[in-house]
Specification:
Length: 498
């Protein structure tokens, strides 16, 4: 967790070193090396998430990406406070450490639990909670159709059974938590938290910050302190928070830190907005490209008289792809050329490869390509023309040790290319793929010099390719000169694979 950013950006590593110094323990080593069982302990998890989030935040700032407004969900509110300049990172560590400890103690004093309810109206769920015996309340208003309840075990289970009877068991599930967070059962933790909270110096926010308890912006340090105190026992008004931020005109959201749960909540609440997450080099590149490189390219093209529409989307998500294509067609009336170029890696020997890393690579590299291709087929068929160009890799042709997921995805793209070419050729649509070899990019520049020299020995032309070499191949396949070429794999690899 966080290792990749720390290894690449000294400013990120400095955050982990600061955490070790402040806490007097090896949090950095735990985040990078585990063991995973220790990392999953609540107190460790919360400190790790805070540290990883602030590390990502510092990297984004170094890359020129700074927020206009911030918010954080529950624990994430402390990362948001650091981002807004309300508290410094050291104080955030102390507060999160105390908060986690006090909440764990409260959970042991009185057992509680939480459950997610999907697809039920708020008023309907509130009525179920009101009629239940014991303590149970709505704890998270996450997004339309997604609510979380919290309270005493029997009371939560009772509401859960009532909800199942109305909306089905698949839409109601207990959550694996150690306490009834954001409920009155956390009152003992809240009282203990008052002292450390009062001892921390707070400054007025430097950017807008929307708070969990109200879902509204707070501008005074004393108000923020009071809302943090209340947050321990009060619900998280996340949907209201997002709508408050939307009212300022913000449409691009970046989730900072491990996971992309909040990105999903943004998309469900504000479908016209875009949401990306940053937790490693690959996800960072998506955000910095959307913020900087894509904007610069758009400005350059517009300066030359072209009409440009730039959008950020997560192609691993079907809804994002459909919205992307819909907006493009709405803007330009048609789509003539699709280049599927997005890709990620999670390199690891197969026997050590985590299921989630395999899934992430296949979902983005292969399923994402399928989503985009399928989304443009109907409009291309209507106009009886189109060019689809998929970026595969020579790794998809020959494989590579430690890249089983990447090789499988890129090989899948080759199969997808050939199958689709046969399906739509009669409709005037060509479908081809490019299999680049070793191309110099910011990512490949991180490969050690010795390894680069070994790679050069495998390339007959004794040189690495450049992005322009791939771009030229794309332009050729998109041009009229390639009108009679379909279902082909064009290798741009200096003869590496032949």
């Amino acid at each position: 967790m966080g290792a990749e950013l720390a290894q690449t950006y000294p400013v990120a590593d400095a955050v982990f070193q600061e955490a070790d110094a402040v806490l007097g323990r090896k949090l950095r080593q735990l985040c990078f090396e585990g063991p995973e069982a220790d990392l999953k302990q609540t107190e460790n998890t919360q400190l790790a998430i805070l540290t990883c989030s602030v590390a990502a935040l510092r990297v984004l700032k170094e890359c020129g990406v700074v927020p206009s407004a911030v918010a954080g969900h529950s624990l994430g509110e402390y990362s948001a406070l650091v981002a807004a300049g309300v508290i410094d990172f050291a104080d955030a560590l102390h507060l999160v450490h105390a908060r986690a400890s006090f909440m764990a103690d409260a959970g042991k004093m009185q057992q509680g639990t939480m459950a997610a309810i999907l697809g039920m109206e708020t008023a309907q769920l509130q009525e179920l909670c009101d009629t239940a015996e014991g303590v149970v309340n709505i704890a998270n208003y996450n997004c339309p159709g997604q609510l979380v309840i919290s309270g005493e075990v029997e009371a939560v289970n009772h509401v859960l059974e009532l909800a199942k009877a109305e909306i089905g068991a698949r839409r109601c599930r207990p959550l694996p938590v150690s306490g009834a967070f954001h409920s009155p059962l956390m009152a003992p933790a809240q009282q203990k938290f008052a002292s450390p909270l009062e001892s921390v110096a707070m400054q007025p926010p430097q950017v807008d910050i929307a708070m969990n308890v109200t879902g509204e912006f707070a501008t005074e340090a004393d108000t923020i302190r009071h809302l943090l105190f209340q947050q321990i026992t009060r619900p998280v008004q996340w949907e209201k928070t997002l709508r408050t931020i939307e009212k300022t005109g913000i449409t691009h959201f970046v989730e900072v830190g491990p996971g992309k749960v909040l990105s999903g909540l943004v998309k469900r609440t504000l479908p016209e907005s875009s949401a990306l997450n940053v937790e490693d080099i690959e996800t960072l590149s998506l955000v910095t490209d959307a913020h900087g490189n894509v904007g610069q390219i758009a400005d350059t093209l517009q300066g030359k008289g072209y009409t440009v529409l730039s959008m950020a989307a997560d192609i691993s998500q079907k809804a994002d792809v459909e919205a992307l294509i819909e907006k493009t067609i709405s803007h330009f009336s048609q789509i003539d050329i699709l280049v599927n170029n997005a890709g990620i890696t999670r390199d690891m020997l197969l026997m050590r490869l985590k299921d989630e890393d395999w899934d992430a690579v296949l979902q983005t590299n292969l399923t994402g390509t399928m989503y985009c291709t399928r989304a443009v087929l109907r409009p291309m068929i209507r106009q009886k023309s189109g060019r689809i160009i998929n970026i595969s890799s020579v790794i998809g042709l020959v494989g590579n040790a430690g890249q089983a997921s990447y090789a499988a995805a890129k090989a899948g793209i080759i199969g997808l290319t050939k199958a689709t070419a046969k399906e739509v050729g009669a409709r005037g649509i060509t479908v081809n793929a490019i299999a680049p070899g070793f191309i110099t990019t910011d990512m490949t520049a991180q490969i050690p010099e010795q390894s680069q020299q070994q790679l050069l020995e495998l390339i007959p032309l004794r040189a690495f390719g450049h992005p322009e070499d791939v771009a030229d191949a794309v332009c050729f396949l998109a041009s009229d000169a390639a009108r009679y070429i379909t279902g082909q794999i064009l290798q741009v690899d200096g003869g590496m694979v032949m």
